[in-house]
Amino acid sequence: MLTATQTPAPAVRLSRSHGAPSSFSSQPRHAAAAAVSRVSCTRVGALSEVVNGELVVGDQEQTSDGLLTRHKKVVADYTLSATVTVSLKQDDSTPRKVADMVNRDWLFLDFFSSHTEGMHREPQLARYSHMDGKGSFIYEASFSIPSSLDAIGAVQVVNRYSSEVYISDIDVHLCGGSHQWTDITFHCNSWIDYNPSDQRFFFPLKDFPIFSKLDEETYGPGDSLITRELIEEQINGVMTAEEAVLNKKLFMLDYHDMFLPFVHAVRELDDTTLYASRTLFFLTEEGTLRPIAIELTRPKSPNTPQWRQVFTPGTSVAASWLWQLAKTHVLAHDTGYHQLVSHWLRTHCCVEPYVIAANRRLSQMHPIYRLLHPHFRFTMEINAQARGMLINANGIIESAFAPGKHCMELSSAVYDKFWRFDMEALPADLIRRGMAIECEDGELELTIEDYPYANDGLLIWDSIKEWVSDYVNHYYQLASDIHMDKELQGWWNEVRTKGHPDKEEGWPELNCHGSLVEVLTTIIWVASGHHAAVNFGQYPYAGYFPNRPTIARRNMPTEGQACSHDGMQPTFVEDPVRVLLDTFPSQYQTTLVLPVLNLLSSHSPGEEYMGTHAESAWMADREVRAAFGRFNERMMSIAEMIDCRNKDPERKNRQGPGVVPYVLLKPSYGDPKDMTSVMEMGIPNSISI
């Protein structure tokens, strides 16, 4: 899954639509109140005033007796403390030089939010505190920050001393209160020259420099060989690595920590291999991503040290062949993750508890059951078939995809570490991955402007949310109606405590219109738009197997003791074509997978499409029928908009020579059978294939 290398803004449960305002969202009176009102469950509005110099945000909510109540919240400042570890060159570490340094005001810091907005007009002074006993000097600084501020995204360091100094670490702690982010460590590890006008930026360990969170005693060194020098070389020095991160130019396909624990187990299987991988992309001026580096890693074992190597496009013939092989391994990782996580786990698997709980706890006459019913069509049946033919032991997935018999184990591990219900909402997912930031007005700003999945997906998300809002508003006049609905609360409680009992966080409380609309929109989006985007393009994109290999069967020719010729195995030097073909899936694996991909990418003859299929219960109610009519009109308008986007020559990711138009999220209009591609037949209501 592609992520941006800058720190993403904290994902919040949004209570207003991106593009069209929800009829249940509270609208902030001014920007200062937006941070609170966006996540509140109010229906009427938000008021604010200043009390004793502090901003007080008041939310209004209509109670069952029709009165308005107001709840005051004080938005207080927090104190941020920063500890900086500083060293001098050995020649400069004289008593006089040290005494001069510790008595001067020379080290200044400024922190930036994840939106890369500075917190202060001028960098703040860091003062000498003590020595750490290892020859380093500890400096400390304190900052006052508003509680509404986003996560820390970068730190600026200014050296106004007369000598070059070495900054190793900057530890940032939040003193008192609570916030959406935790303590952060910046591993700078850089010499900084004396230059009062020079601005050196550093980023959290999770972003750059790249570092693993796994145990080094078990897997080996956690630092990445993708260095700032390598990045700057690959982007031809157009900017520094720090500037590339700050300007949102670097993106990473990160399968390092996810795959590394499985490498040795997979390598014990016949005719297959596995690495952990990181792939770095640079966002060009045209808005397209260019891969600039691939790092492959094999963890250490009791008998062998860790092996890792970075591959780049290169200029020599040998480097080009190695780059092609490295891409084959990464594509196998991405194909496996796509099938096991993006497709099976996040749609088929995680939707099941919603279906089961709805049939157990909601009457078929319940309005929420009637709303969700078309989005659960055939899901249990198709999942039962998948368990018997695809993901079963020694089935097609285990026989032809990278993790082999560990496929479901990998899927379960990702569920355990990463899955949260509130992050399955499209806006929250984009924010979490750093592919979007939330602006002060609640709108999303994409970090890649021409990102077809996000561009089209947000249109679909907004349209679904408006339809759900109209529907919920019709049946629930007051927030208390939602809270007192025993069937509804019983369904949601069973989803959380029985369907996903091991997940304690990320579950909204169904206590107001905003939270109910968000929950229902998320479920409908996953069952329709998300599934359509990850399913129906499988054969069109992966039908040519070298484009999307499902498995890599040979190690890189630069790994192992058999390397002799310039660090490469003789077989690779003699016949690189044969090595590449042997790395691809076998002919048997290819013929096993291709028919399945073709079947999965097909639409059933009786498919029901979003925005066109209407339940009879909806049509029987005049207001609901009118709301669905508006939903249908919006979907038809979106289809026309997507057609225009695919013809826009400025959108290089969906138009141009060799570029496939993006139609996976194009709503159906007319007869789906008349469409030129299976990908543009429409968005099915449910996971039915």
Automatic annotation (TrEMBL):
Annotated region (Disordered), positions in chain: 1-26
An MF annotation (GO) of this entry: linoleate 13S-lipoxygenase activity
SMART domains according to UniProt: LH2 (SM00308)
EC number of this enzyme: 1.13.11.12
Subcellular location field: Plastid, Chloroplast
Source organism, top-level taxon: Eukaryota
Catalytic activity: (9Z,12Z,15Z)-octadecatrienoate + O2 = (13S)-hydroperoxy-(9Z,11E,15Z)-octadecatrienoate; (9Z,12Z)-octadecadienoate + O2 = (13S)-hydroperoxy-(9Z,11E)-octadecadienoate
UniProt keyword terms in alphabetical order: Chloroplast, Dioxygenase, Fatty acid biosynthesis, Fatty acid metabolism, Iron, Lipid biosynthesis, Lipid metabolism, Metal-binding, Oxidoreductase, Oxylipin biosynthesis, Plastid, Transit peptide
Cofactor(s) required, per the database record: Fe cation
GO cellular component: chloroplast
GO biological process: fatty acid biosynthetic process; lipid oxidation; oxylipin biosynthetic process
Database matches in PROSITE patterns: LIPOXYGENASE_1, LIPOXYGENASE_2, LIPOXYGENASE_3
InterPro entries, sorted: LipOase, LipOase_C, LipOase_C_sf, LipOase_CS, LipOase_Fe_BS, PLAT/LH2_dom, PLAT/LH2_dom_sf
Span of domain Lipoxygenase: 205-689
One Pfam family here: Lipoxygenase
Family according to the record: Belongs to the lipoxygenase family.
Family matches, as PANTHER family: LIPOXYGENASE
The protein's name in its UniProt record: linoleate 13S-lipoxygenase
Organism the protein comes from: Oryza sativa subsp. indica
Encoding gene (name): LOX2
